């Protein structure tokens, strides 16, 4: 459960703090367009401490930041927002592209600094990257599940999907429980190791698994009775096993891992 | 402190994309002096001016622009009794311009919107960006964290399903504003000095199922794909509400786009919004809307169109029936609005007879 990139989940498990920030070890602080070093931790904390707005899109993005607000037409009853569960940051230099894309565009570098934080709307799915992420452990800790391992998972980001699966679960659970997920700032500067073309040689299982996951999550409805994060993870695991288990053993393993993870979480984090 | 761009000396854009396929619709009650600044970017295009207010007033159009102009008398003459669906004394009248246009694309802009500068100080050709947005696919079914994946230097991120990478057709391109932000009256009253100085260098697709406040100040759309849904409602003179025209259109448009599998983008381009309207006047206009929108939003969020609704007109008529059924209880205004929605479609179809089989 805790091998490779997933070793970090052990850290999530044993932490006693409210917030977690997790960054890959090939990322360093980025500079903003003014040349100032970006304090990614500080930005993540700001994101987590301010409400999210998943129920209606604000065209000026984060309404709580300095110099911005809700625009005309934004319902007043939705302006207090909901708790923010996760803050997904981005990457300058080497963006988090998959192997085929990176192999095709070897020279491409992300130089676009998009100065915004926004809430990903309710029901919208997204690929959450584990490279630069933060979350409210008290709120949604167990929902970050180290579950999906693809066959031949490797030591470079292009050969994993654990964070993307984890993110799909996290977003779905957050939507169900009325929490928000933000994306955008902060940026980190990423230098990946590895050769994308080399990674292509391995049969890229991730692609197939993602294709199957999308309609599953789109149609999935967690029961009303699932009111805690742990309940949600267990229900989600059940659904994965039932609906995706026959498609690929990776899903069955993921479902089992999710259940085990919740048990582990509860035993490690039980009061006292 | 942001400033508008100085466009003196910028050469006329001779390679103007979609020159013969796009109309620029501008509602005005004052003058069109602002066009002088836009000349390098907009002169190659045909303008449709919708003159609101007193039809006996003459609106001067700067030299060199190719245009057609309609005042209230023209609207009444062309639409006859159906002219009742077109607002008077409100920029909502601009949708008449959408109706009479014969082009595939529309760009609409307010007469107090100037050319913005990007962070490098360069003048932003807003129309060019809108065209790029419209000609490129949208990605409403899965959010790309690097925003517009089709943009130079960007792409779909790891984990983005390959089957969704082709995207869908883009129906709407919603641009933003530097300087005076598009706030409602209460916010304007509380923050009269706030200016939007943040240039967010991104275009993104608004996910399926998500509603947004569509501002008509800096907007472009594919008239063939979504035109009939761009009705800006009953506002202004004789109506209990104002400043909700574009909002109403945006909610209808988004529900229909989601139903038909079309995309709506927001973000770039920016224009420089120069004039702040009077917040006390705005408050009077918006007052009812602020309460009504609390019911209107859940209505649109739960609106489900039938499988049989396959054209924009069919979707819109269905929506009008739902408005009559579910929103009339809030205020008789919605009953009138539902009727006006039907009148609008009738007028649209009359002026735009279907030529395709």
TrEMBL record, chain A:
Compartmental location: Golgi apparatus
Top-level taxon in the UniProt lineage: Eukaryota
A Pfam family assignment: RGP
Keywords (A to Z) from UniProt: Cell wall biogenesis/degradation, Golgi apparatus
Broad class of the protein's primary localization: Golgi
The keyword DNA damage belongs to this UniProt entry's keyword annotation: no
Family statement drawn from the similarity comment of this UniProt entry: Belongs to the RGP family.
Protein name, per record: UDP-arabinopyranose mutase
Taxonomic source organism: Brassica cretica
Upper classification of the organism: Eukaryota, Viridiplantae, Streptophyta, Embryophyta, Tracheophyta
UniProtKB/TrEMBL annotation, chain B:
SUPFAM superfamilies in UniProt: Nucleotide-diphospho-sugar transferases
Catalytic activities: UDP-beta-L-arabinofuranose = UDP-beta-L-arabinopyranose
Subcellular location(s) per record: Cytoplasm, Cytosol; Golgi apparatus
UniProt superkingdom: Eukaryota
EC id: 5.4.99.30
Keyword terms: Cell wall biogenesis/degradation, Glycoprotein, Golgi apparatus, Isomerase
Functional summary from the UniProt entry: Probable UDP-L-arabinose mutase involved in the biosynthesis of cell wall non-cellulosic polysaccharides.
Family: Belongs to the RGP family.
Protein name from the UniProt record: UDP-arabinopyranose mutase
């Amino acid at each position: 459960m805790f091998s490779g990139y997933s070793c970090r989940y052990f850290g999530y498990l044993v932490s006693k703090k409210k917030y977690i920030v997790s960054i890959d070890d090939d990322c360093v602080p980025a500079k903003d367009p003014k040349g100032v070093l970006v304090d990614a931790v500080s930005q993540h904390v700001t994101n987590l401490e301010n409400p999210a707005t998943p129920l209606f899109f604000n065209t000026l993005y984060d309404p709580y930041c300095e110099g911005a607000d809700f625009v005309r037409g934004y319902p007043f009853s939705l302006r207090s927002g909901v708790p923010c569960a996760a803050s997904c940051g981005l990457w300058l230099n080497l963006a988090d592209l998959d192997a085929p894309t990176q192999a095709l565009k070897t020279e491409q570098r992300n130089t676009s600094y998009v100065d915004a934080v926004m809430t990903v709307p309710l029901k919208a799915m997204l690929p959450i990257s584990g490279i630069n992420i933060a979350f409210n452990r008290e709120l949604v800790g167990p929902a970050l599940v180290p579950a999906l391992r693809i066959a031949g998972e490797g030591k470079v980001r292009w050969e994993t999907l654990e964070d993307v699966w984890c993110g799909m679960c996290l977003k779905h659970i957050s939507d169900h429980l009325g929490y928000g997920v933000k994306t955008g700032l902060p940026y980190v500067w990423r230098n990946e190791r590895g050769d994308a073309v080399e990674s292509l040689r391995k049969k890229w299982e991730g692609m197939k698994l993602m294709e199957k996951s999308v309609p599953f999550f789109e149609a999935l409805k967690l029961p009303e009775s699932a009111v805690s994060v742990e309940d949600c993870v267990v229900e989600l695991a059940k659904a994965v096993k039932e609906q995706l288990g026959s498609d690929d053993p990776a899903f069955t393993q993921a479902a089992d891992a999710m259940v085990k993870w919740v048990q582990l979480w509860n035993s490690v984090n039980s009061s006292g | 402190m942001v400033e508008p761009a100085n466009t003196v000396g910028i050469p006329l854009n001779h390679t103007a994309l979609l020159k013969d396929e796009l109309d620029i619709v501008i509602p005005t009650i004052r003058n069109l002096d602002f066009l002088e600044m836009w000349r390098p970017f907009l002169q190659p295009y045909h303008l449709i001016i919708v003159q609101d207010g007193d039809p006996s007033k003459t609106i001067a159009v700067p030299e060199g622009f190719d245009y057609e102009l309609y005042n209230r008398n023209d609207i009444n003459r062309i639409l006859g009794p159906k002219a009742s669906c077109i607002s008077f004394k409100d920029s909502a009248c601009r949708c008449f311009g959408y109706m009479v246009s014969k082009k595939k694309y529309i760009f609409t802009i307010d007469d107090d919107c100037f050319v913005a500068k990007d962070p490098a100080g360069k003048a932003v050709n807003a129309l060019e960006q809108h065209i790029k947005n419209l000609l490129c696919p949208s990605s409403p079914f899965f959010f790309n964290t690097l925003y517009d994946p089709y943009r130079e230097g960007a792409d779909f991120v790891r984990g983005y399903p390959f089957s969704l990478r082709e995207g869908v057709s883009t129906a709407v391109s919603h641009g933003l504003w530097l300087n005076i932000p598009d706030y409602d009256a209460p916010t304007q009253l509380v923050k009269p000095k706030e200016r939007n100085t943040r240039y967010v260098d991104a275009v993104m697709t608004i996910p399926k199922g998500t509603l947004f406040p569509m501002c008509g100040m800096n907007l472009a759309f594919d008239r063939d794909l979504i035109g009939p849904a761009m009705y800006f409602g009953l506002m202004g003179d004789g109506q209990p509400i104002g400043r909700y025209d574009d909002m109403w259109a945006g909610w209808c448009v988004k529900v229909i786009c989601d139903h038909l599998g079309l995309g709506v983008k927001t973000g770039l381009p920016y224009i420089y919004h120069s004039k702040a309207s009077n917040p006390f006047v705005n408050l009077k206009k918006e007052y009812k809307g602020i309460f009504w929108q609390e019911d209107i939003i859940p209505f649109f969020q739960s609106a489900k169109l039938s499988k049989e609704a396959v054209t924009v007109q069919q979707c819109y008529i269905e929506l009008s029936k739902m408005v009559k059924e579910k929103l009339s209880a809030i205020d008789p205004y919605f009953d009138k609005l539902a009727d006006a929605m039907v009148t609008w479609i009738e007028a649209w179809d009359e002026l735009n007879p279907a030529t395709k089989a």
